[in-house]
Amino acid sequence: MTTEVSGHDHSGAGRSEKAVSDLYGQQEDIAKKYTALTFDDGPNPKYTKPLLDGLRERGIRVTFFLVGECIDGNEDLVKQMAKDGHLIGVHCLTHKDLTKEKLSDAAKELCDTREKIRAVTGDWPEYVRPPYGSWNAKLEEAVDMIPVFWDVDSIDWRLKNTEKVTEKVVKDTEDGDIILMHDEFKTSVEAAFRIIDNLTAKGYTFVTVDELMVD
Questions:
Q1: CA-CA distance, 164 to 12, in Å (whole number)?
Q2: What is the rounded CA–CA span in Å between residue 106 and residue 162?
């Protein structure tokens, strides 16, 4: 069986660095807060590169869930993701609601995308974010990947406004949350950098989704 990954369901992960009281009991707990920034629907030939550049400048690693048909012609972007230490997962081959497809067709959508990623990076992706969050027990049995959902939906695809996306995510994010964004809009890339800067200032550390998991 696979395990669903959710920031809240795995709230104990990644918390090895906690402050302890000093000899006089005066130092307060300054435990770090963790969040995972995730991007669906890429790689995008126009906006993924500036996103990668900005993440590299900030020393931030995120998780990308790739659309298989978008990998073709953008292999260099996928290679850069891997080189920069980002976690790469499967989204789908053609962005379908997998629960509405024949099981064999749905599994092929995921497995073909997985193979495309392996062909570029040399590694088999272990994680999948099903489009629309549509998942069921049959898919879980048919596909040997761990489904990843989200806690904070930026709705960046709808808002398409840097300030509004930033405000929503910064306001809604709590310790252990997984944030959903898309790297196919300029406003999303701009908002991502502002979100990183704002949440970092609030004491958050950005990790990849596997780092939120409990061993």
A1: 30
A2: 34
In a domain, 30, yes or no: no
**Torsion of Cα atoms, 49 then 50 then 54 then 57, to 10°:** 60
pTM of the model: 0.86
Write out the catalytic residue numbers: 40, 182
Residue 5 has pLDDT above 90, yes or no: no
Average pLDDT along the chain: 88
pLDDT tens-digit series, residues 13-59: 322 232 222 323 333 335 689 999 999 999 999 999 999 999 999 99
Reported as half-sphere exposure (CB side, CA atoms, 13 A), residue 181 has a value of: 34
- Residues comprising the chain, all counted: 215
Which residues, in sequence order, are bridge partners of residue 180? 38, 153
Helices (H), 19-136: 48-58, 68-71, 75-83, 103-121
- Give the position of tokens 């088999």: 124
Compute the chain's Rg from CA coordinates: 18
Total structural domains within the chain = 1
Q: Is residue 98 assigned to a domain?
A: yes
Of 37, 6, 36, 8, nearest to 147 by C-alpha is 6
Which structural domain range is residue 150 located in?
Answer: 38-212
Q: Which of 103, 148, 109 lies closest to 127 in space, CA to CA?
A: 148
What tens digit of pLDDT does each residue of 170-182 get? 999 999 999 999 9
